[in-house]
Design goal:
The protein is an alpha/beta fold and about 675 residues long. Helices cover about 25% and strands about 15% of the residues. The protein has three domains: about 170 residues, no CATH class; about 150 residues, Rossmann fold (3-Layer(aba) Sandwich); about 240 residues, Spore Coat Polysaccharide Biosynthesis Protein SpsA, Chain A (Alpha-Beta Complex), CATH 3.90.550.
Amino acid sequence: MFSQTNCEDISDPKHLFLRSENSKTLELTTSSPGASPRDTRCTYHTCFDVYHCGYNDKTRISVYIYPVNQYVDQAGNAVTLPVSKEFYEMLEAIADSPYYTNDPDMACLLVPSVDLLNQNSIRLREVGQILASLPWWNNGNNHLLFNMLPGGSPDYSTVLEVDTGKAVIAGGGFSTWSYRRTFDVSIPIFNPLIQPDKMPQKSYLEKRTYLLISSQTSLHKEYRDVLHEIEKQEPRFLFIQKCPTDERTWNFSRRCKENVAYDYPQILQDSTFCLVVRGARIGQPALFDVMSAGCIPVIVADGYILPFSEVLDWKRIAVTVLEEELENLIQILESYSQEKIYELRQQVTFIWQKYFSSPKAIALTTLRIINDRVFPYAGKSYEEWNDMPNTKTIKNPLFLPLRPPSAQGFTAVILTYDRLESLFKVIHSVAKVPSLAKVVVVWNNQKKSPPPMTSWPDIGKPLKFVKTRKNKMSNRFFPYDEIQTECILALDDDIVMLTADELEFAYEVWREFPDRLVGFPSRVHLLDNTTNKWKYESEWTNDISMVLTGAAFYHKYFSYLYTHAMPVELKTWVDEHMNCEDIAMNFLMSNVTGKAAIKVTPRKKFKCPECVNTEMLSSDLGHMIERSDCINQFTRIYQSMPLKSIEFRADPVLYKDDFPDVLKKYKDIGML
């Protein structure tokens, strides 16, 4: 399966392990000692010596690659084949990486230059002798062996059948019985016959012709029978196999159904889901094929340890179905919403490109997993492993892992038109918050002048008003010179129900998360499966994806982005419709940070007691429809859906506990 390469044209000094004066031709005899059998009880804590791993620095392992030697038997016949192109690329990637060292005495991990990717290409006993002859073998301690195709006919073991002692195996076919958790690494089976650059680009939003495709050859009869039954009942299922004309010389790039031929793997791009069923080996290169085509894998292989499952969340990548549930496959797949399908497609492409797409990516991912075991405090987080970087993000150097100082306080920016009585109540209410530094009123009424300063409330804090030139909802997010604090509290002029304790607590939450929108009224976006459009939802749910800026804290930096960096088309939409500026800010911040907004306290009622329904925009059904239109327009403009849904709410400690108020820092927190 893997092609051979010529290692004679090596010029990079880092690659001298492939061609150095230390390379020798060594003879194996029948009496040469072999390695001890694979220790099935190994764990990271019992078989890995971490005391060899501090030489590079305190955050990175060092890896040594043995020179490539030639091994012959007593008759002078070569015991090993030339290094395959794929294995050479793995060694080259390690040599070019920050992990590499040319000093074995300083190495945490040692990689033999013996190509074990395909067990069918090696002589098992002799390879065991080769490993035992390595100068630093030491029963395999801290050695790493790569293997993608383990086992041989007829049993097809799920692990490399070479005596490997205590060596770590990065293997492509582990089952729950053979995988040594915390010790081995499960890797994908690379398919060198796949050429992704020859496949057309397809958007994750593009409609697919088929619901499901099965394209594997040589499936077990039991599985074929079930799939034929599904095929009879489901026209959206395409069951293709090896072409009848390919019996002698198999053409990998073709699959057939009866007399109709399909280009492979291009046909996989026409399906939403692609089946990956266990074969003679539990690990299948078909998984690599379908992911390279951007198709969502449907994995039917009980007990299979999925590639890099130690760090990758496969629930976000694939559909896993028990073998006994194969006959119910269509019902299972139909339960997935269009929104979930879009998420899975994006994740499949991201994971394949980053971790699966080349021998280099596979080798470096393996080393990073081992590195994270050795130095967990410097390891990548779940989000760093699994979350897609937002390519449209405005790179933001502002936010460091530090809390903004509390002494600076926040500026309350209140947008108003002409509701003076309600406005003054809001000013009096917010003035009671200890961390308030200043109040800035944005006067959005060009037909009427604001009252003289003598009639404004005396709150003991600076109070300024800014008269705008045009009545625009975006005026609330302009970075006015009067705002001198990092933190801004955006307030509507009718939010009179929030207490000082609630606002003070929300400000403290913002100090913990200064790159988030932190506020009170929350909303969620949903995908309507009937119309395939996004819908704005104001019902009370545990999920939230937006916090309305009628009462929300955010960093002044985002006012600059909203004013100067947000797409002009989006700002124009907001100003023309006099709506959705809060949704636009949620889109902007989630797009920049890749993070969700945070809801604070359990309060869900935000009605203005003095306002009637005709004055409340949110009471209008047409308004809700327009908010949904906004979400769909903004998604089109951003060419993606940046909003993140989470189930999270920040509450003060003890707020519901039956303790005396004197023990509670925030006593006046609103109820549901």
